[in-house]
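Ligand: flavin-adenine dinucleotide. Inputs:
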Amino acid sequence: MIFSNKYIDYSKKTKIELYLTLILFLVLSNKTIVSIGKKLLHLSLAIKLPILGIIKKTVFNHFCGGENINQSKKTIKKLGENNIKTILDYSVEGQDDETSFQNTFNEIIKNIEEAECNKLVPFCVFKMTGIAEFKLLNKVNNKDKLSEKEMVDFQLLNTRLDLICEKAKKNKIPILIDAEESWIQDTIDQLTEAMMKKYNKYEVIIYNTIQLYRSDRLKYLIDLHKKAKKEKYKLGFKLVRGAYMEKERNRAKINNYKSPINISKKKSDEDFNKAAKYCIENIDMINICFGTHNEESTKMIIDLMSEKKIKNNDYRIYFSQLLGMSDNISFYLGYYNYNVAKYVPYGPVKEVLPYLIRRAEENSSIAGQTNREITRMRELIKKYSNHTD
Ligand SMILES: Cc1cc2nc3c(=O)[nH]c(=O)nc-3n(C[C@H](O)[C@H](O)[C@H](O)COP(=O)(O)OP(=O)(O)OC[C@H]3O[C@@H](n4cnc5c(N)ncnc54)[C@H](O)[C@@H]3O)c2cc1C
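Predicted complex:
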């Protein structure tokens, strides 16, 4: 595989940094430690133990840019020196009150303004649950009758969404809208499609996210393409496999409905690759951001780009990985002049904790991802030792 066999550590980590990263991923790979750690963390916070300092120096430091945009600038610069751009991701999750929705909205607007004056920030991103209540999105999804207050709240969500997209359009900064749990995703899709129709007439400003671990998503993508063709607007897609697999399967089991998730990893891989191929074959109408750490898919995409004579840095194609993961892919892509950007989460340590816990749980449950990082760190340490001995 190009990313490992001929792998050069473009990230230039020191030996100590490599060891610390290895230890971090070894801890994250252990489901029991992660599960006990989560409980201890909640307990420590409840009894006010000064645990946040430790979190900041370890997991937060590895996966996040800083507590605000300014603090994240060091990371943006360092990545930029390696031809890797940054997608700033205000990662305050799980807060369900009006003050926090307004704060997140303000932060997204600030992000668009930052991106406008910083060439190293090509996109902005947000989650619909950052600006509206999960319960509300779920009720709309189920077509339940809304109370008067809920109708006002839903109108407020529409207004906020439109203001974000309008600002993005005015400042020419594309916006990625994250995909979330399937029981609110129809609502997210409908809201996002309306924005694409309004703002993607001539250029792609709004991107929806397609989770290819869902068995119905390839068809959704193709159907939406047909619809957009007819209604004459362009599409932007972030393609991912999907982050909520265990939660989706458990909910389906408990509530006795068919899980929306593909029956196997192989099927998710096939759907991801088919979707990638479909988008590239329709590149005249679809801009794409590939959010993946999968080396086979990434290789398949760059081979296809070369076959179709699409330039490495064609503005319509971006690759993206999360900060602190799969540096081999990001630095390789940057080195060979592909458009690549890291998702750089930021926010106050305490408020980013739900994101970090999700990251830790995903790392411990999806063994492949963490094992990849562990193997890579071990290889690099070995190479480093051979080189310096
Ligand atoms: C830049 C970026 C943005 C992202 N944005 C989002 C987002 O908006 N919404 C979101 O949900 N996720 C998002 N993710 C996370 C993403 O969906 C994946 O969870 C993560 O990237 C791991 O998948 P992978 O493609 O990197 O590769 P791999 O490590 O090869 O694949 C792991 C993934 O395959 C799927 N999978 C694993 N086992 C099975 C199985 N038994 N059956 C079926 N499928 C299986 C799961 O989706 C799992 O996460 C994002 C990731 C990145 C890098």
